[in-house]
Specification:
There is one protein chain. This protein is an all-alpha fold and about 150 residues long. It contains seven helices and no strands. Helix 1 packs across helix 3 and helix 2 crosses helix 3.
Length: about 150
């Protein structure tokens, strides 16, 4: 299986997309079963290797969400219209992953974080889940990455 085109910085966007999909599944499993990050990573790492994903990025997302979950949830709360526990489990997992990326992976442009989150939720979430996730992440990015967002507006 061949990898997608790599950028000058060595990042393979296709592998990153696959990593986010697997991270969504792992975080979702952590939410439902209470399994810890190490076990969730082990559960999905085998699939990662066969799907040619960025294993290091996958692990960073899963560990990051696990380590910072309370802070991520608290930072998302002002942008939600309900408690984090009332958000659909797939959407909640994706919001946590995207919040982690927006706050801790400044090497990833905010538009990439939001676009990837929307594509992933469209694939795995409820019919209109991506609309909700988009609204939350647009508002969050405007606050958390204000300078980057402002520099991209006409």
């Amino acid at each position: 299986m061949s990898r997608g085109p790599q950028r000058r910085d060595g990042v393979d966007p296709v592998a990153r997309t696959r990593s986010r999909r697997r991270a969504l599944q792992a975080v979702y499993a952590m939410q439902l079963s209470g399994v810890d990050a190490t076990n969730a990573i082990a559960q999905f790492a085998h699939e990662q290797a066969h799907e040619v994903a960025d294993l290091e990025y996958f692990e960073d997302l899963v560990r990051g969400v696990s380590q910072h979950r309370k802070t991520l949830d608290a930072s998302l709360l002002p942008f939600l219209d309900r408690t984090i526990d009332e958000v659909d489990p797939i959407e909640r997992a994706m919001l946590r992953i995207a919040a982690y990326e927006l706050q801790h992976r400044l090497d990833v442009p905010y538009r990439v974080v939001i676009d990837e989150a929307l594509k992933t939720v469209k694939r795995f979430g409820s019919e209109h889940g991506h609309t909700y996730v988009n609204g939350v992440l647009d508002h969050a990015a405007a606050q958390w990455r204000a300078a980057e967002v402002q520099s991209q507006r006409p």
